[in-house]
Amino acid sequence: MSPDTFSNAVKDFQSFAGLNVTGELDNETLTTMTLPRCGVKDKVGFGSDSRAKRYALQGSRWRVKDLSYRIAKYPRNLNKKEVDEEIHKAFVVWSGVTPLTFTKKTSGPVHIEVRFERGEHGDGDPFDGPGGTLAHAFFPVYGGDAHFDDSEKWTINSYRGTNLFQVAAHEFGHSLGLSHSDVREALMAPFYRGYVSSFELDEDDVSAIQALYGKKSGQGPNPTSGKKPTEPPPSDGEENELCNDATIDTIFNSAEGITYAFKGNHYWKLTDESIAPGYPRLISKSWPGLPGNIDAAFSYKNGKTYFFKGSQYWRYAGRQMDGKYPKRISDGFQGIPDDIDAAMVWGGNGKLYFFKGSKFWRFDPTHKPPVKSTYPKPISNWEGLPDHLDAALQYTNGYTYFFKKGVYYRFNDRSFSVDPADPPFPRPAGYWWFGCRAQSKGGITGETNQDGVDDDNGVRLWNSERRQGISRNDDNDITDIILDGGESIEQDTRI
């Protein structure tokens, strides 16, 4: 294999796994390659950017909606009743978002047969013992059966061992016609991510299965999983909280590319078009140990998300606290003040920027000290931005956004100024970001019936605001962005 072929193969894997695409077998790539995972082969080589990732369909599906299954062989370390309940719950994950039904049988022909086996078990794809391959399943065209490695320590509602419910729900996705997804938070991602106490399907999973079988009658586009909800559905007043007052505490992209807005003790998940159904939810339920009223948040290139409040910060890997936190900002981010207003990783140079009052700081962990003596600098260096910001975000369309008191500013990283536009910035965040019909408190009035709004049915096409901008669907590093004059933005003395 030539060096270029090898490097491209590594890049394909890194892209599919949501890693930094370097083409080199770095420690993170090698670690990911050794994670426990599903034995179904991946469709790699089609993704080049995390923001373009989406589900994959295998190409076959069941032609009936009422499916049957049988557990032909049980695992050795769990009793049958427990296994029956977990397998049933795993099927409910998919019947909860589609018209499909699943009936357990003990005899006769069935659509999906479930077996726990060790080593070679008759299908030409032997299991490899503890770790490695956890299970595999056949697509509908090949029968839909699901096999689990009985050498694994299968567990229920425990952080120890391998969670049977989550692995079974993943395998049954294959049994229904789904291939592996390259969205890291999706259930159909190939790597086992460990026990998740507050499990729910990702939007990517829901979109995938509904592309094959349609939506469940009378249910929205993104209902929760088959597990009993941990929170009651929000009331109308809670749903409209961001429309009544679109002021937020922080907004950030997760390592998986999902955008979340935080306010008080609640958070909202944003889709390309509005707020996802079923929100708001409690921050403390989804990020155990994290308080409300967060000052700022961002996800860094190491795949971790950092949250800041007062003089402390927390680090999370996905939804799990990544070590002993909170820690003091002065210890982990030397040179950055307490009680910051906003923080972000800026796409112009990949550096961290912190904002407080009328000042901002640039933080570079590769330098000693990480904050140069020339900081802080005035926020007015960012042409057109106000002081005392609420939040900052490098969004997936290539623009940087700043939020303050219910309105937002779109910042053009090439011209290094707030974009001229009609209607002008700042614009009301509730209307343009959260899909609110009416103007929210703090917003700019007189923008109804603008191009992109369908007043007949309330469907917003305002998301074109968030989809337009500089394309990021290329292989360029963020440091390759240059000004029209050829000078690197990182060299601009203003920032």
From TrEMBL:
Top-level taxon: Eukaryota
GO MF terms held by the record: metal ion binding; metallopeptidase activity
Swiss-Prot/TrEMBL keywords: Calcium, Disulfide bond, Hydrolase, Metal-binding, Metalloprotease, Protease, Repeat, Signal, Zinc, Zymogen
Binding site for Zn(2+) 1: H121, D123, H136, H147
Domain Peptidase metallopeptidase span(s) in chain numbering: 58-215
Binding-site positions, Ca(2+) 1: D150, E152
Binding site for Ca(2+) 4: D249, D295, D390
Active site (UniProt): E171
Positions of the UniProt region annotated as Disordered: 214-241
Cofactor note: Binds 2 Zn(2+) ions per subunit.
Entries under CDD domains matching the protein: HX, ZnMc_MMP
Modified residues (Phosphotyrosine): Y325
Cofactor(s) needed: Zn(2+); Ca(2+)
UniProt cross-references to InterPro entries, sorted A to Z: Hemopexin-like_dom, Hemopexin-like_dom_sf, Hemopexin-like_repeat, Hemopexin_CS, M10A_MMP, MetalloPept_cat_dom_sf, Pept_M10_metallopeptidase, Pept_M10A
PANTHER family from the UniProt entry: MATRIX METALLOPROTEINASE, MATRIX METALLOPROTEINASE 1, ISOFORM C-RELATED
Annotated family: Belongs to the peptidase M10A family.
Protein name per its UniProtKB record: Peptidase metallopeptidase domain-containing protein
Protein species of origin: Ranatra chinensis
